[in-house]
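Hi F.,

I've been meaning to write this up properly since the lab meeting, where we talked about keeping a consistent format for the predictions we share between groups. The idea is simple: the sequence comes first, exactly as it goes in, then the structure tokens exactly as they come out, then a line or two of notes. No screenshots and no reformatting. I'm using this chain as the first example so we have something concrete to point to.
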Amino acid sequence: MKAFIKFFIPSLLLIGALSSRAASVISVNFANPGATSQMTPGDAAGAPGARSTNWNNVVLSAAAAGSLGDGSVIDNSGTVVAGATVAILANGAAAAPSGNGATNEARMFGSIIDKNEAGPGTIDITGIPYTNYLVFFYTRPDTGGAGNQERGGFFQFLNVETNLDLTLTTNRMETRWLKGDSGDGVLIPIPDNNGGTVNPYVFSPTVSVGIGDGTSPANYPAIVKAQCVAFANMTNQNIRFTWASAGQGAYGVAGGNGARRLKTSGFQIVQTPTANVTNIISSLPLSPLHAGDTGTKAFSVIGQYDDGSTFPLGVFPGAVTYGSSDTNIVQVNSVGVVTPFNPGVATLVASYGLLSVTNTVTNLPPIQLNLSLQTTNLFVGNNAADSVQATLRANYADGATNVNVTGFKLVSFMTAPTSVATASPAGVITAVGPGFFNLTATYSVMSTTIVSIARVNAFVAPAGVSGFSFSMTGNTNPPPAGSDQAMNFRYVAGAPGARLGYWNNITTVGNFSAVYGTLPSSNQITAPLDSTGTILTNVSLTMLTHLGATGSTGTRNTNDNVMAQTYFDQGQNVAANPAPISSIVVSNIPYSTYDLYFYIYNDTGATNRAGRFIITNTVDGSVLDERWRRNWNAAEGALNFGNGAGNIAATTNNGGLNYVQAVPVNPGFAPTSWTEIPVGNTVRFSGLTNSTLAVGWGAVGPAEAGIVATATTRFRLAGFQIIRSLNGLTATNLYLSTPIPVQYPGNPAVFPLTVLANFSDGTIGGNITTQPGIGYSSADTNLFTVTANGVLSVSTNLGTANLVITYTNANLSTLSVTQTVTAALPTSVRLVPRPDTLYLNSLLPANTSKLDLFANFAGGGNNVNIAGFNGVTINDATPAVATVDSTGLITPVAVGMADLSITYLGTTYVITGGVTVLDVAAAPDPILRHRYTFNEAPGSLILPDAVASSAYAAPANGTVQPPLGGALPITFNGAQANFPTNSFFTTAPYISLPAGIISRMSDVTIDFWAGQNEVKDWARIFDAGSSQKGNDPHNLGNGITGFQFSPRPGGNPNSIFEVRTVSAGVTTVNTAFGTDPFPVGTERHVTCVYSPNQGFIKIYVDGVLQTTVNPTVQPLAGTLDDQNIWFGASQYQDPILNGWINQFDIYEGVPSDALVAAWHAAGPLTGVVVNPTPAPIGFSVTGGGTTLNLSWPPDRLGWTLQTNAAGLNVPNSWFPYPGSSSVTNLAIPINKTGNVFFRLVYP
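Output, unedited:
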């Protein structure tokens, strides 16, 4: 059964059992190869109560990796700790010793692992010999510029268990935060053996705080200053710690000084003491503190014992209580965190049982101030301005220097003159007008001023076309200088020919109604800015939108990224109707003729999601123009907005932009297939003249106009621009916006050109691609052709030819430009069948697979999907085993292995044995594809997939989604996920898995352990499918497809396993009911089997078959759109689970009744270690010589049976027998046509 961790909790009634010298200590020093960083056997170091000799040196590589193997770890007595090991993978850098290493502490604290921005590192410790112990980690302050000493982060305890298949699961348990400090004094000195004194050992409070989940420290001042963290009452023999630096937004912590750093020196494993406390003392003078400091310090208390030893008491949660004599001067909370307020003197008291100690605190005012700005070079535009953060630092009489006091409670800011800049109470400075300004900061009774070095400059928009622009964002307008959350007036962005500044942010956001027929939310802008910053007084914008606005996503390191990666997400999940049309109305457009650009962020959920823009006559509602667009896939190129080198603060920045214009189609266009809809992220209308622009826009329903594809609709509008037309202007030169990339021979997709021109009136970069007077010609139409609208198409030939573009101005002068077009040679081709195993005698009407094709090309282009390319022929290589038709559809014929073969541009490519065909009657045991143990610690945001990456698929980790509107979150206790009691589906938390991991299988088995705390009709344990809700279960809507289990469906007291599929518009619902109620408060083991090949659905409860249903079962591929795979939430508007999930496994294949019973007998995942010692395989022959029975000892569960299967037309090499690693016995049909060998292999 699943192991639970038992914690030793101290209390005042157990003082004698809590607080004594440690009987044994294991000490580990992070060392470099140099002698000055390595502890010698006689060197003593460590916190009070753990100070010991015989430190173990882990000599680190440059990448901060190192280990101590079995037999290499010693304790403080010098005795080898048998079975103990240490493995460090720091994901950081090893740093050389700091200082001369002359004392013990200098050596231990000297060399460090520098946990920088690279991400968390891990420390694995096995074979710990103590039944109850503590772990101390030691850090040292960072060095560098002012304030860098306060850099820090967190340590996190992970319980490490070993699965039956020897893979490790890590379950987050506890977290400690700290940051460095300097000038805070020392502990009561303890001499070392070289005549020096110890460095200060100041512990962070023993309170576990989340990481990036809303409960982590909000900012750097909230992190406690300390050099040590402690984890008490540890009981695990094998443990894992992870640790990382935080700040600058990482792990939910804002602020911090410059780079992230957490410099770690070593750790100790300390056996929990067992003697009695006789006295307590304050380990560190807290005084002096700094008045108004919003940061925190720890009141550290040391216990003195009857054996003369000492030990820090604060490491035991709840053992010490605290109080203050004057809370107007200083406060202390329940874990000893001290917060200073006004200058003055107060007394703190700490109590441990009947013992107490006081600590007098003095809050100091500053003696010197230093004021600075992030930048002293601000910009103010025409009706727009930058803002920037001021920083105030202080020096004190205690020797502390350069302390950042910007956010202190006694600090204020003021500017003069306010006609140039203004200051907020938090020190945010906003430009008002050109000129120099003074900035004054006051802290307590002292002030300082920056005099005439801060300047506000006038921003001048780059020359170009005239227009005005709108960006969708969930953030402020305008954003702070340098922000990546919304467009700043200085961020120049837009398609070639339309790159403008002064973007207007549409900031009224929310999750808008998806119940069609109700009035959605309005988003309005009146009097927007144009590209010169001029207020367009009479212009107004109104948007009516369905579904929601999405905050910024992805990488935003260029102006174009900032614009593109916030968007309105319009769509719905319906099979029969188009998504409702959202609208944009812009009134009083100031141009007689104009062009219109729309920018769409690609939907990453699936390909072939489409939408359209329709321009209507505001008088009679007639359609004036229409454009369609769909999102792309890998074969069509990564048509993103670029994430190349760029600076979002730059005024002229393209950042590797990649605007791809969808090919225009005529008004009234009605596609009959997805391939007819043009691909791109930019849609352009030209030559519009109506002063009031009315645009309908939205996702296209999959059944509209006869289109058959995925049931989910999405259309993500990121921004749009209205640009003055170039008609009548005289061009002075023309050029392509970007060179034409390498083309792929036979590619049916077209490449739209973008042609720009500069004009005599000063307009730069005007888009003339479809202007009257432009012409295109190909020097070799056997290689490529180009249309009158600049759309390029390639043939199946290889080679290079010129494209010539001409443009005739209104004054009849003609300009031209020439561009080379190359159709490249493929360098490699891959054939990928999905799935690669098919079955004979399946009950499916069509048990088939699909062949995917990918190619790499010379000069660029990797993993290009060439399926459907002209010049590609799919060959039927082994028709006696499996046939392959011209579309790549693979159909099984006979047991064996079939080759796969295609011909592309005259070259044939073959995969030998690419598809395996088996008989359903001889199908192997199911194969475990994904496993979720729910063993995560409180605050976990990731649900790891315990199945390692394989040729089949990478691990599919889940994501814990937070609640909305004050609802309770999902909680973990190291053994299960608990779903809260008070949740409604519009606000409830849930867990999501990656899309598509169920529908890619033929036969599927879901095996899980779960329970409910409350009976709720139709509450879900799991639900995989698609919905009118889209990808958010909080929305309104009903399910479309589904693969789900409910402990209690409406109108039936027993549980239900239901599969809802849609094929060619026809919905098939298959259900299997359990035969007994799902009891409240009791955990049940449920196995759900869906077998299209064998034609049944089954439910097992607690290992016993409850129901078998034999309907007409649809294959999941192509009929179950499992874009949403949710734990605890429904594709419908159903109640939310109030219960728990313990373990959840996804298998491919069908288990026997005996195997399900064995799963139940084994229980949820245990921490049992698989026996690695070889063992003989038992065997017998039954069934008149037709069946071979193999078995091996139970403690070898997790070993893999391998066979060479020489008689099954399999290559003569060893390969795993499917399903063998999850059982200890197998019945295998005997093949009488050849010799077959088996062996049992340790993982």
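Notes:
Helices lie at 104-110, 559-564, 1153-1162.
The mean pLDDT is 78.

If this format works for you, I'll send the rest the same way.

G.
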